[in-house]
Design goal:
Among the domains are: 89 residues, no CATH class; 81 residues, no CATH class; 67 residues, no CATH class. 37% of the residues lie in helices and 11% in strands. Helix 7 runs antiparallel to helix 8 and helix 11 packs antiparallel against helix 14. The chain is globular, with a radius of gyration of 26 Å. The N terminus is likely disordered.
Length: 455
C-alpha cells in the first residue's frame, strides 16, 4: 500500500459531519491525542471549523487538548500525552542526548549540555501541510512531541554569531572563525545570501578572509572556495509541554476582534536540553589558544541567543527567550593534565527496597505499571483496579513510590548507568546559569597548558 492510500485510510477512519462527531472523536481515549487532532483536521473545510478549533464552554475541542497549564492536565490533554511519551524517549536515550565517546574524538574536542527553562513562549513552524490550524509547532515525526531541530539551532546560533561579528569585530580572522565553526557560507558561489551580506557589512576584510580560508585548506588563490563542514555539531531539543498563542486582530473602526489567529507554541515554563559537540578539523594544527578562542566565541553567542535574541519564530516580538538559571550544566573537554573545579554532584535518592518490584534493573518503571498518570505511571483509578493483580503493593505504598519516581528516578537511572563505568578521564566543568557559562572560557584557559602537545 502506498503512502497516499495510507493517508486516505486515516481520514476515513473517523468522519466529521456533526458536532457530535467532534465530541466523540476528541473523547476517544483509544486514539492518542496527536491522531485525534489529525482526524479533526477535515473539519477546516466545513462549517464546523470554528467549533472544532475552540468549541463551546465545557466542551472538548482542539483548544482544550492543546493546553499550556500544568493544573489542567487530564487524560485528554496534549501535555499529558507528552509527559507519557517523554518517559519512553528517556528510556531509549532520545530525550536527552548521551555524552559521546570522547576517546574516539580528536584532541580538544568538547561536549556541552544544559537544561534550560523558557522565559517566553517559543513558536516554530512545522512542515505538516494539513492541520486544524495554520501554525502548528514543530514536532518530532514519531512521538509527536514539540521539538527544535538541530538544523534550526545551527542556523539561529550562526545568525547570532554573525551579528556579533558584524557589530563588534569585522576582522578577516573573526569571519574565518565563523566559517570554520559553522561550515560553508550560503551563496558563496552564486554571489548572494549570507556570503554577500557579510561582504557588504565589512567590505574591507572580505578579500583577506577568502585568502586565509584557502590557505587553511591548502587551496591556490585562483581556485574556487572550499566546501567544508563546520566544527560544531548540534542535537535536537525536545520540550515537555505544548500550548497555544492567540492573536486577535481588531477592526480599526469598530475596535472589535475580527478573526483570531492561532499559533501552537512551547509555553513559558517549559524546559528542554540543549546539547552541542565541538570536533576540531584535525589534530595537527589546532592549539590551546585556538580551542580557547573557539570556546569563548561560541559561549558568547550561546548566551546572547538564549537571553537576548531568542530562538524560533517571532523572536522580534520577544518569543523564544530563556531564563538565566540553568540545571544539569556540564562541559567536557578532551585534554590531558587538567584538574577542573567541579561542583559536588548531588547524590540520587535510592528507591526503598519495597519499590524494587515496580522497577526494571536499569531503574525504569516496568511496563505493567505504566499508565495515564503522572510521569507515565498508572493513575490512582488504574492502580486501584488492577494493582494487586500485577504484583504491586498497597495503594498508599504505590502512592509513595510515585512521589519518589517523579522526584528521583531520572537521577537514579543515570547513577545506575554510570556506577559500573570507569571514572571519566577527561576534565569537566559544571555551571548553573548563563552567567557562569560565559565565564567558563576563562576557567578553562587557566587550566590548559599552552605547551600541551598532541596526545
Amino acid at each position: 500500500m502506498n503512502s497516499s492510500n495510507k493517508t486516505h485510510d486515516l481520514w476515513n477512519y473517523r468522519k466529521i459531519v456533526t458536532e457530535e462527531d467532534i465530541k466523540q472523536l476528541l473523547g476517544d481515549e483509544k486514539i492518542n491525542v496527536p491522531s485525534r487532532i489529525q482526524l479533526l483536521t477535515p473539519a477546516v473545510a466545513t462549517d464546523l471549523k470554528d467549533h472544532a478549533r475552540s468549541g463551546d464552554r465545557g466542551v472538548v475541542s482542539y483548544m482544550s487538548l492543546v493546553d499550556n497549564a500544568d493544573t489542567k492536565k487530564t487524560e485528554y490533554s496534549y501535555s499529558k500525552y507528552i509527559e507519557n511519551k517523554s518517559e519512553i524517549m528517556k528510556d531509549i536515550g532520545v530525550w536527552k542526548p548521551v555524552i559521546p565517546n570522547m576517546e574516539i574524538l580528536p584532541r580538544f574536542s568538547w561536549f556541552l549540555q544544559f537544561k534550560f527553562i523558557l522565559e517566553k513562549s517559543m513558536t516554530s513552524k512545522d512542515d505538516e501541510i494539513f492541520y486544524i490550524i495554520d501554525n502548528p509547532v514543530c514536532k518530532e515525526k514519531i512521538f509527536k512531541v514539540p521539538m527544535y531541530p538541530a538544523s534550526s539551532w545551527k542556523g539561529r546560533l550562526r545568525w547570532v554569531a554573525s551579528k556579533n561579528w558584524i557589530e563588534h569585530d569585522g576582522s578577516a580572522e573573526g569571519r574565518l572563525r565563523l566559517s570554520l565553526l559553522f561550515g560553508d557560507e550560503t551563496g558563496e558561489e552564486g554571489g548572494r545570501g549570507l556570503s554577500v551580506y557579510l561582504d557588504n557589512a565589512h567590505n574591507e576584510s572580505k578579500a583577506q578572509y577568502r585568502k586565509m580560508l584557502k590557505q587553511v585548506f591548502g587551496i591556490g588563490s585562483n581556485e574556487d572556495m572550499p566546501h567544508h563542514a563546520g566544527k560544531l555539531y548540534f542535537y535536537p531539543t525536545f520540550f515537555n509541554r505544548i500550548g497555544l498563542e492567540v492573536i486577535n486582530p481588531h477592526d480599526r473602526k469598530t475596535r472589535a476582534g475580527t478573526k483570531p489567529i492561532y499559533f501552537e507554541c512551547v509555553p513559558m515554563g517549559a524546559d528542554g536540553h540543549f546539547s552541542l559537540l565541538f570536533v576540531p578539523r584535525d589534530n595537527s594544527d589546532y592549539s590551546v589558544i585556538g580551542v580557547i578562542q573557539d570556546i569563548r566565541f561560541t559561549l558568547k553567542a550561546l548566551s546572547d541567543m538564549f537571553l537576548l535574541y531568542g530562538f524560533g519564530a517571532k523572536t522580534s516580538s520577544g518569543f523564544g527567550v530563556a531564563k538565566p538559571d540553568l540545571t544539569e550544566g556540564n562541559i567536557i573537554l578532551k585534554a590531558v593534565g587538567i584538574e577542573a573545579n567541579q561542583k559536588e554532584i548531588e547524590k540520587p535518592q535510592p528507591p526503598e527496597e519495597v519499590y524494587e518490584k515496580y522497577l526494571n534493573e536499569n531503574g525504569s518503571v516496568k511496563e505493567e505499571f505504566r499508565g495515564s498518570g503522572k510521569a507515565g505511571l498508572l493513575s490512582s483509578p488504574e492502580y486501584h483496579e488492577k494493582g494487586n493483580q500485577l504484583g504491586g503493593g498497597g495503594f498508599k505504598e504505590f502512592g509513595r513510590f510515585k512521589q519518589w519516581y517523579v522526584k528521583s528516578s531520572e537521577r537514579w537511572q543515570k547513577h545506575l548507568k554510570s556506577k559500573d563505568a570507569p571514572a571519566p578521564e577527561w576534565p569537566n566543568w559544571t555551571f548553573s546559569s548563563f552567567k557562569e557559562l560565559a565565564e567558563l572560557a576563562e576557567q578553562i584557559e587557566k587550566s590548559l597548558n599552552p605547551q600541551e602537545g598532541p596526545r
